[in-house]
Amino acid sequence: MKIVTSGGFEHYGRPAGRTYLAMAGGNELKDGELGYANWFAADFGEICIENFEFVQCEFSTADFSRATLTNVTFRQCLLVGAQMPAAERMTNVSYQECVFDLRTVPPWMDHKPELP
């Protein structure tokens, strides 16, 4: 998959998420997409993520709590145990075919599934 950001970073392949974040500048991800990366237990700090799509990435136990997300799509991502930011730090964030831990349904989800 091609990865491109507004900062001019371009890469073809499957880098580990933290490596990609460091190469992209570390403080923002804008106007791009990233697929098949492992962000397991990553701490995103105060990053600004804008106009970005994550495809089939793993974010298990990742910490987005201090991040700001604007126009971000998570598609077919694993988000079990991920700490997402408060609602006021997220604008137009969508989750398509993602996997969550149903024992701790995230409070930021618009629709909470019924538990058995």
Describe the protein in words:
With 116 residues, the protein is mainly β. It has one domain (2-103): E3 ubiquitin-protein ligase SopA (Pectate Lyase C-like, 3 Solenoid). Helix content is 6%, strand content 32%. The chain has 1 helix and 6 strands. It has a 4-stranded parallel β-sheet with strand order 3-4-5-6, with no helix packed on it. The model is unreliable at 1-16 (pLDDT under 50).
Low-confidence stretches: 1-16
What is the alpha-carbon Rg in Å? 13 Å
Globular, elongated, flat, extended or rod-shaped: what is the shape? Answer: globular
Biggest sheet record: 4 strands, parallel
CATH 2nd-level architecture? 3 Solenoid
Order of helices and strands: EEHEEEE
How far apart are the termini? 38 Å
Task: Supply the key terms.
116 residues; Pectate Lyase C-like; two-stranded antiparallel ribbon; 1 helix; 6% helix; globular
Task: Sum this structure up briefly.
The protein is mostly beta strands. The chain has one helix at residues 17-23; strands at residues 2-4, 10-12, 28-35, 48-55, 68-75, 90-96.
Set down the secondary structure blueprint.
Blueprint: E1 2-4, E2 10-12, H1 17-23, E3 28-35, E4 48-55, E5 68-75, E6 90-96
Parallel strand pairs: 3-4, 4-5, 5-6
Antiparallel strand pairs: 1-2
